[in-house]
Design goal:
Blueprint (H helix, E strand, L loop, with lengths): L1 E3 L18 E2 L3 H6 L4 E13 L5 E18 L2 E11 L3 E4 L2 E4 L5 E6 L7 E4 L4 E2 L4 H14 L1 H13 L16 E2 L4 H12 L4 E3 L2 E8 L2 E7 L6 E8 L2 E13 L3 E12 L5 E16 L4
Antiparallel strand pairs: 1-16, 2-18, 3-4, 3-18, 4-5, 5-8, 6-7, 8-9, 9-10, 11-17, 12-13, 13-14, 14-15, 15-16, 16-17, 17-18
Helix pairs in contact: 2-3
């Protein structure tokens, strides 16, 4: 089964390929039951503008791919974000062109125990804190694509505060929606948006208002996940989001794609596409 939902990603990030040496495979039923201590996924992000005909007119930022990983260690979760690949912008130099590499920071790591997170440059240097200009630019880019991620990692860096320890497994719901929590998800949604007013293509339709804005929320009644949102004002669509899930780990819903469009002042729309691949829940053996 493939469904679309607007649940935004909130989880973090990844580690180097050396971690593969310490992984043991998990059966699907073990993953759902909780016999795992490592989450990993590759995340590809692209942002661009489209005109009123839906034609792509401008890349808002180079397309890039990160690996996200979260590892349980001594009661908390270590999270890492590693840049795997990114488009290199082409600039004109004299009579020719040249590719430039704007990604000086390629790895961010939150130890998860309340200590400051670590920053690694493309040259392998460790930074005590991210440069202000890079921090602001990176925060703005990640805020648009991964709101929860940027506010936790980059926001703490800006304020020079150590991040709060990461405990528990509630964060997994942002990527893998388990059947056991479907009823709780539906209850929470109804508390926020009220009972569904109708059904559309098998999905429960909730309508809410915030000032002049009308918010439509579609919910899959089986999984309890949101299946798209539309925010409009005076009949004009301002924002639209969808996310696709696929079945995985036995009978859970695994996030595979997120799509968002927002109306810009110039009449064009800003588009963000995020694709999740290689989503895994593994049992990592202790290293000596």
């Amino acid at each position: 089964m493939r469904i679309a939902t607007a649940v935004l990603p909130r989880v973090f990030i990844v580690i180097s390929l050396f971690a593969l040496l310490f992984l043991a495979p998990l059966h699907a039923q073990d993953a759902v039951s909780g016999n795992w201590n490592r989450f990993s996924t590759d995340v590809a992000i692209e942002r661009y503008e489209v005109n009123s005909e839906g034609q792509k007119t401008l890349a808002m930022s180079p397309a890039m791919t990160y690996r996200l990983e979260k590892i349980e260690e001594r009661g908390h979760w270590r999270t890492v974000m590693t840049l795997l690949a990114a488009d290199r912008p082409v600039v004109r130099v004299g009579s020719g062109t040249r590719q430039i590499d704007p990604y000086s920071v390629t790895r961010l790591e939150d130890p998860g125990d309340g200590s400051p997170f670590q920053i690694t440059t493309a040259e392998g240097r460790k930074l005590a804190r991210m440069p202000t200009q890079a921090l602001e630019k990176g925060a703005a880019s990640l805020q648009a694509a991964l709101p929860g991620l940027s506010s936790l990692l980059l926001g703490n860096a800006s304020a020079r505060r150590a991040p709060a320890p990461t405990v528990g497994r509630d964060w997994l719901e942002g990527y893998v929606a388990t059947p056991g929590k479907a009823a709780a998800r539906l209850k929470k949604l109804e508390a926020q948006y009220g009972k569904p007013t109708s059904y559309y293509q098998g999905f429960a339709q909730h309508i809410a208002h915030a000032g002049p804005d009308r918010l439509e929320v579609l919910v899959d009644p089986q999984s309890g996940v949101i299946v798209g949102t539309n925010r409009s004002r005076n009949g004009v669509l301002l924002d639209h989001t969808t996310t696709h899930y696929v079945e995985g780990f036995g009978n859970a819903w695994v996030k595979s794609h997120f799509h968002a469009e927002s109306l810009m002042p110039n009449g064009k729309r800003a588009v963000t596409n995020i694709t999740y691949s290689n989503v895994t829940l593994d049992k990592r053996e202790n290293r000596q």
